[in-house]
Amino acid sequence: MLVEGRHFPRAADPYRLGHKALAVNLSDMAAVGARPRYALLAGALPTGDSEWLASFMHGFDALASRHGVELIGGDTTKGPLTLCVTIIGDVPKGCAITRSGAKPDDVVYVSGTIGEAALALEANAGRVTVDERTLRACAERLEVPTPRVELGVALRGVASSALDVSDGLVGDLGHILDASHVGATVDVAAIPTHPALRALLSTPDRPRALACLLAGGDDYELCFTATPAAQARVAEIAQSLALPVTAIGRITSAPGLVVRDEAGNALSALPHAFDHFT
Amino acid sequence: MLVEGRHFPRAADPYRLGHKALAVNLSDMAAVGARPRYALLAGALPTGDSEWLASFMHGFDALASRHGVELIGGDTTKGPLTLCVTIIGDVPKGCAITRSGAKPDDVVYVSGTIGEAALALEANAGRVTVDERTLRACAERLEVPTPRVELGVALRGVASSALDVSDGLVGDLGHILDASHVGATVDVAAIPTHPALRALLSTPDRPRALACLLAGGDDYELCFTATPAAQARVAEIAQSLALPVTAIGRITSAPGLVVRDEAGNALSALPHAFDHFT
Asked: Which of A40, A255, B202, B217 has its CA 20 to 30 A from that of B4?
């Protein structure tokens, strides 16, 4: 459920919003290795603005058809702009990737790059300064995220656990650790991100940059674990999808998440994940 | 999608709201003869008020378990109070009841009584006066509607078309007529309703009473059609469910809906159905 003023700004481009409303749901399918099939869309709309709605639906439909997803139902009513998508997909019996399968010694991976959507939010709010080209690239990540559906499907039987990074790496990986009753060590230096965000880590903006990297939401990359023996298979999948997949740490039997800085020292405090009620 | 201030008042009892949020969706299942199986619930909530939420979920769960419906997913976020339920059910292949199967000479039926929820709304707004006991009975219809799931299932292969009366009889029956490319004649005198609403038809409040009867929403009864030959079967079903089912008119080959008053004269103007954008 996406609420205006909370998940997207008032003036959000309707085409991009239509894309994103579906994309975040496709990302949930990707996280469990499911193939999305059907979507339902409900919207509370402040007015019956047909131009806005047509543009929104173009964005929604373009992404839906790219993934063979059929819109099979929904609802519209008047109200504060709120969008609710339900996604239905399938996965062969027993092949769904869960959060609870991570085992000590498993490698922790992320797809793509992390922290760029959060960097766009920080730059848009004027809290950090980045060059125009970086901002444009990061805003694309924020506004038209690419759900990693094919990666999720390819990881069936390969990943021991997975989820999508929607609320921040620390918080989302924390869900895997909790469900799997394990801990993890992650290296800041290993987390793939935009060079501009990497550079910010060496400036007085380091705390903000770390927060983008570790607690920024909205990237919609997958974070997953797999046994060390599966390393070659993971590399093959990444190559076949032309999507970088990077090892960022290891699962440990000791509970808790340890994030190590570039010098190998554990960070004493971790930035908080996005909380839906603050 | 139910929006505070539009589909329910600000101070709505959370237990009843939980019931209604699911009930209106079960009613959609009933309208196509489907057996509801799974529900997803998304809510934008102004605060994380756990007492409110617990009461809401009690109302939701009580109705869900009565119908064997399993809550399998959803979402919560902060925002103007908005509830979105997605319902998933099944019906044997080819047995779904549609809106497009009504044929000339078919009998038009409604279940239960019509117009009571609207009468409660009118009375609550002080536009009509009814006695305390009537108001309580009608408020029950409005706030804790009973979805006609068993009737819908029983009507598979019997009804030629069906839908649930959620936006008013005239408008909802109109959807059947449009989809079936037929017309209908309906008799005001035949529409089953509360005696208090029937009595209001003979007072200066007749226009308001007619509007409740013909254009009042929220009753969540089924309106359906069946061949004259199926009349005994329909009566059997009604008896087995202990749910009154009443013939209120006939399908005609001439398009358009004619509503006849108690003297058999066509009403010159029909009250409008609920419009979701006005």
From this structure: A40
